[in-house]
């Protein structure tokens, strides 16, 4: 739950006030002699009492695979039910309340309640239930009991799913010059996730989840005629209720996720001087982890004593120099100072203990970001924008201690054509930095020719084209295309090149007064090439990876049947993703690598019938066809010497029928 006022929203609201407008704005008109009583809107009164609607849902699910619950809202097989609604209350003294609910009673739903007096105070209460499903009826020959992982002759059956339940309470006080808020939320996460360990052979098992996260937010906003500021605090507390994983013959073979907490205090503000707007923010924080470590022979540390201090700042300025030209600039600073404990550890090779010692190195990261931009209105309907961005990053104890990314971009917006809006944007970016593998702490661990993609030299060229077209009053078309090429020109081992291109198309149709429709489609292709070495030397193999994604959808709605009481509709969605990997060796030999493939068909048909002005019925049918295949998922003993969670790929059909009754409050 967040009660903070968004600074961008505040800025837009602030800029819309009369004080922010030009001298000829309506807000600056002399209205002393105007009798507003003669122009009072006699029909613009707000409804008093209760308004809104309440819906009750009852239906039936035919679900063979719990993964369908991600689309249907619940994985329950059989009868299902839920409650939804949007109810508001207001009286003539300014007191108001609002209750919103969506699918309460199903695995995924929420409720929002707020009450208070307009412009004085408000109280908010939230509830969220979110459940995500990975696989159901997963079998494992290992039992987990209070941290002890024990082999068994019988299979344990469980679901790979995560359940999150979150409640929140907040209070906001409003006065003429300031607003103050405080909010508290608590999220409990339960379920199972996949995990693995080596003891001495690889074992995959279902790790229980039982954790709680508490969040505290508080702040105060103060504003004047042309300025505003906010002082805020954010605190997060994570508590893991699970123990370390142990085996019957060996304790603490896998550490549980440690408890931790994070705190941040920030001060932000905005000021306007004539046609210039300045904004800034500074924040300081601390992340703490102070938990006992698992008992490892030879380790000098009994607890981690982890601490990272953070300092962030940002300043931005934007000025309208003329009616045609606007200039802007910003600077951002981010520092992560790792104050965690250090100690001397014995170093291990693959074959033996070296006998030497080395100290763990807590990494610090500092970022500087500079941005300059300009916007110029060439003529009516023509606007040209351009900018320069630079990001400098310094990392201690890294393969590359310094990198800097430079980017030049330009965008042209054309709105001068009748029924056509066109914009095109181009970008050229380059990354460089200090000498690679300058750190002795990492140079001996990796191939000397290896370049990590986020640290390597890179050249990027990108272009994007957007077209909005409205040929007539019953059809509108939006098209966006994009292309980007990344060239890692100095990389011999690692990612050497990547291309990302695609399009998105949306069409809205109004065939007649009663018949409307829509359609959309989008595709994306990501092709990359990487080189590797099995001999810890120069490249002796390479792999081409081709990823494809597609989304298609369409829908129709027909209203006006049975004296405008009945409307019918249908929606359809298709999505597909393919990932093909083609490895080859330097001598031209092709290697086999399994491909990933998935697709989904989803359709909904519905009928809405108005019984009266207050009551309505809706009958809907939902269908999902889902299939995926991941070569990494194999049978439990499909790989000798390794125990897996089995073949958890999906191949199912799911159906849902729902009848909803809605009552409108007037």
From TrEMBL:
Signal sequence region: 1-21
Predominant location category: membrane
InterPro entries tied to this protein: Beta-barrel_TonB_sf, Decahaem-assoc_OM_MtrB/PioB
Alphabetized UniProt keyword annotations: Cell outer membrane, Membrane, Signal
UniProt-annotated location(s): Cell outer membrane
SUPFAM superfamilies: Porins
Ligase as UniProt keyword: no
UniProt keyword Membrane, yes or no: yes
GO CC annotation terms, alphabetical: cell outer membrane
Domain of life of the organism encoding this protein: Bacteria
Name by which UniProt lists this protein: MtrB/PioB family decaheme-associated outer membrane protein
Taxonomic lineage from the root: Bacteria, Pseudomonadati, Pseudomonadota, Gammaproteobacteria, Alteromonadales
